[in-house]
Amino acid sequence: MVLPRSKDQLTPTQVAVIVCSYLLGSGTLSLPRVVTSEVGTPDGWLSVLIAGFLFMWLGYIMAKLGAYFPGKTIYEFGEEIVGKWLGLLISIFIIVYFLSELAFETRMLVEITKTYLLENTPREVTLALFLFIVVYIVVGGIHPIARLFGIFLPITIIVLVFILLLGLKLFDINQLRPFMGQGIIPVIKGILPSTRVYLGIEGILIISAFTQNGKPFKKAVLAGIALPMLLYVMVMIIVMGSLSVEGVSIRIFPTIDFIRSYEIEGLLFERFETLLLTIWILQIFTVIVSVFYVLVTGLACIFHKREHAFIYGILPVIYILSLIPRNMNEVSLWGDWNNQYFLMLCGISFILLLIQKIREKR
């Protein structure tokens, strides 16, 4: 059964904005530490760049897979490719992954908010408020979501680039030398942890149902991945060039510490970490909205109901799951677990495309 879709299709620009918004998540704050701790050299930015090109290729694969089944999500066309029962198992796997990712992103949002902005506010209160706002947006459907993202994304990019450039007075190119001083092996080791910031391209398998599939859609997907990739590389280079490899490795959120380490006198703001956290909250909010939407869409497809039937029912589950981790170490382990299953989902997409191509030749 194919759920009814809106007659108004997403434009290529809206697709690019949604993909880009989905990818600009919590990795902005912790990426330098996660990658540098694994690489151990100043070449972590190169690992992020290589991972970005790999995921542009994976994004293209997902877009091509969705192009075979106009108006359908992976929850629907998965059954057409591998059969009803195996397709159902894949759908359940994807839903469990999205549920876990949603709980993780929500808890990250609450932790950062409590640590840096609302120290005396209980996590439970912050979590409940954020979830109700998310529900308000998701109830409107994909098109209000796309319009909201179109407002948030330019603000996020402008503020992030502005704040990073202001800190260039701390930047020392020597902190990035020697280039590949220990060869290619450390760079390769950094590719896997770099993949965490590209969690989100799997949303392509759902939003393809709301587009006119073809070259514009595929180009929009590639553009939506390329922009976050360039921003993440910029963050890696500037933060590492300012704090050094050792300085980045010992900080939980090195991007915040980098911005805290400089002041600009004479401007409206002299310290900018609050400004960064504000736009980060806007951006992580868009990630949570995206994951929530694709989650309820999957439940609607499996049970053949309207999405609204699951929007409110899934809230208690997300609330409880988000509060399970006891500290940031457990939250980080949860993120690592999600990363492994995300890579499995990418593999499933690749296999589905191969099977579809074989079927097409027959």
From TrEMBL:
One of its GO terms (cellular component) is membrane. The chain crosses the membrane at residues 12-32, 44-63, 83-104, 125-145, 151-171, 220-243, 277-302, 309-325, 337-355. It holds the Pfam family Spore_permease. GO terms for biological process: spore germination. It is a multi-pass membrane protein. Its main location: membrane. Signal peptide: none annotated. Keywords: Germination, Membrane, Transmembrane, Transmembrane helix, Transport. It is found in: Membrane. It comes from the Bacteria. Belongs to the amino acid-polyamine-organocation (APC) superfamily. Spore germination protein (SGP) (TC 2.A.3.9) family. PANTHER family: SPORE GERMINATION PROTEIN A2 (PTHR34975:SF2). This is Spore gernimation protein.
